[in-house]
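stage 2 :: seqdesign
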C-alpha cells in the first residue's frame, strides 16, 4: 500500500538520502533506455502502433463504421491475409516488397498513395522507413502493453557520468539526460527537500519546528527519520486516501436533483485507516469488493463494501425504479473497471469495445457480479436510506442496544 508520490515525485533511498525525481523524467528515461537497448529490432507497441494509430487506423482500424476496403491493420491475421483483388497481403512478414502497405505508402501516384492526400494525413520519410524495416524484420504484432504478462524487464543502461547515479533508477534518468545533452539539476537543499517530501506524503507543509529539527540534524539517517515520521503520521493516510476516494466516486450526498445528504464518511475513515495501517493491497481490494462475503466478516469489513454503494441515487418523481437500479449496477461495473483494472468498460455496455479486447458479453458477465444486491432503484427522502444498510453505533450506543435487546 505504501506509495511515494501522487503525480510529481518518486522518492527513493540514495546512499542514506532521499531524492525527489520527476516521474515524467523517469518515464522518458525508461523509454529511452529501452529504445537504446533494442535499437537493432523494432517493437510494434513502441515504434509501429503509434504511427498506425495516428495515420492508418481511422480507415483501417477497429471501427467497422469507418473502415475502408474491408482492411484492418490492427489485427495481424487480417493484415497478413491475402487480398482477393491483388492476390497479395497488406503486410507480408519479412517481405516488404510484396506488402501492399509498403507499395501504397511509398507510391508517387496521389491516386494510390496512403494515407490519401484528401485525408490531410501524411507519413514522414522516417516513418515510412520504420514501417518498412518492421515488416522486413517479420512484422511481429504485440497486444497492448497492459495485457502483456509478465511485463518485460528493461536492461539498466550504461551512462557516461559514473559519479552522479546512486542507484539504478538514476541511471535510467541520466541515460535520457545524456541523450538530450542535458545535465542533471543540482541536489535540492535540505529545506526545499523537506518541503517537497512533507507535501508529498501528508499534503501539508512542514511546521517550523520540524524544519529546525531537520536542518539541525546532521546524522547519517536524518532523511530516513523524516520519512519514517511522515509515514507514521495520521496525515499520511488522509493524503493517500484522496486519489482513491476520487476513483471510488466518494461523496456524502446522493448527487441528483435536490442532492440530499447521504452520510458515507465512515467509509472515508476506513480508507484513511487502511493506508495508515499499511493494509496489503490485495486485502484493500478484497474487503471493499466483497468484505461481507469473507468468513465471519467484521463490521469494518462490511463497512468497506460501501465502495460498491457510493454511486449516485435518484428520488426524482416519475423515475422508473428498475431503470435506475440497472444504472447503479452499471455504475459499479464502470467504477470497478477504472479503479481496479485501469480500463474503461463503458463502450462495451452497448457494443464490443473498439480499442480494448472487451466484448459486450464480458461486460454483462461482469455486471452479474454487481447485480446481486436487493436494492430499490429510488430513495424517497432523507429519512429513508437505501437498503441494505449498516448501523454503526459507537461503544456506548452499542452497549445500550445490547441492553435493550436483553430486556
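stage 2 :: out
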Amino acid at each position: 500500500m505504501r506509495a511515494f508520490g501522487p503525480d510529481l515525485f518518486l522518492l527513493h533511498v540514495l546512499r542514506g538520502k532521499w531524492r525527489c525525481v520527476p516521474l515524467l523524467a523517469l518515464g522518458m528515461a525508461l523509454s529511452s533506455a529501452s529504445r537504446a537497448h533494442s535499437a537493432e529490432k523494432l517493437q510494434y507497441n513502441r515504434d509501429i502502433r503509434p504511427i498506425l494509430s495516428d495515420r492508418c487506423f481511422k480507415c483501417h482500424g477497429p471501427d467497422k463504421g469507418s473502415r475502408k476496403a474491408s482492411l484492418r491493420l490492427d489485427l495481424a491475421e487480417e493484415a497478413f491475409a491475402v487480398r482477393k483483388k491483388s492476390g497479395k497481403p497488406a503486410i507480408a512478414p519479412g517481405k516488404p516488397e510484396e506488402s501492399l502497405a509498403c507499395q501504397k505508402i511509398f507510391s508517387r501516384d496521389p491516386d494510390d498513395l496512403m494515407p490519401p492526400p484528401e485525408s490531410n494525413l501524411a507519413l514522414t520519410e522516417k516513418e515510412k522507413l520504420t514501417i518498412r524495416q518492421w515488416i522486413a524484420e517479420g512484422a511481429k504484432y504485440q497486444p497492448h502493453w497492459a495485457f502483456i504478462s509478465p511485463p518485460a524487464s528493461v536492461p539498466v543502461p550504461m551512462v557516461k557520468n559514473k559519479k552522479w547515479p546512486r542507484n539504478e533508477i538514476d541511471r535510467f534518468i541520466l541515460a535520457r539526460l545524456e541523450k538530450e545533452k542535458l545535465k542533471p539539476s543540482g541536489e535540492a537543499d535540505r529545506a526545499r527537500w523537506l518541503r517537497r517530501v512533507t507535501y508529498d506524503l501528508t499534503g501539508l507543509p512542514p511546521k517550523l519546528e520540524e524544519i529546525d529539527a531537520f536542518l539541525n540534524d546532521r546524522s547519517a539517517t536524518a532523511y530516513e527519520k523524516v520519512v519514517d515520521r511522515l509515514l507514521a503520521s495520521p496525515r499520511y493516510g488522509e493524503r493517500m486516501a484522496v486519489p482513491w476516494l476520487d476513483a471510488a466516486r466518494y461523496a456524502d450526498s446522493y448527487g441528483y436533483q435536490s442532492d440530499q445528504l447521504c452520510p458515507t464518511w465512515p467509509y472515508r475513515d476506513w480508507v484513511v485507516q487502511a493506508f495508515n495501517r499499511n493494509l496489503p493491497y490485495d486485502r484493500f481490494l478484497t474487503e471493499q469488493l466483497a468484505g461481507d462475503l469473507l468468513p465471519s466478516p467484521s463490521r469494518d469489513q462490511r463497512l468497506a463494501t460501501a465502495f460498491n454503494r457510493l454511486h449516485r441515487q435518484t428520488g426524482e418523481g416519475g423515475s422508473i425504479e428498475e431503470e435506475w437500479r440497472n444504472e447503479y449496477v452499471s455504475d459499479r461495473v464502470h467504477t470497478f473497471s477504472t479503479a481496479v483494472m485501469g480500463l474503461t468498460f463503458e463502450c462495451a455496455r452497448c457494443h464490443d469495445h473498439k480499442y480494448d479486447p472487451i466484448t459486450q458479453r464480458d461486460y454483462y458477465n461482469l455486471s452479474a457480479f454487481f447485480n446481486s444486491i436487493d436494492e430499490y432503484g429510488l430513495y424517497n427522502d432523507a429519512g429513508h436510506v437505501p437498503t441494505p444498510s449498516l448501523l454503526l453505533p459507537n461503544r456506548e450506543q452499542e452497549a445500550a442496544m445490547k441492553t435493550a435487546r436483553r430486556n
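stage 3 :: structure notes
- Residues 44-141 form one domain.
- The beta strands are 9-14, 17-22.
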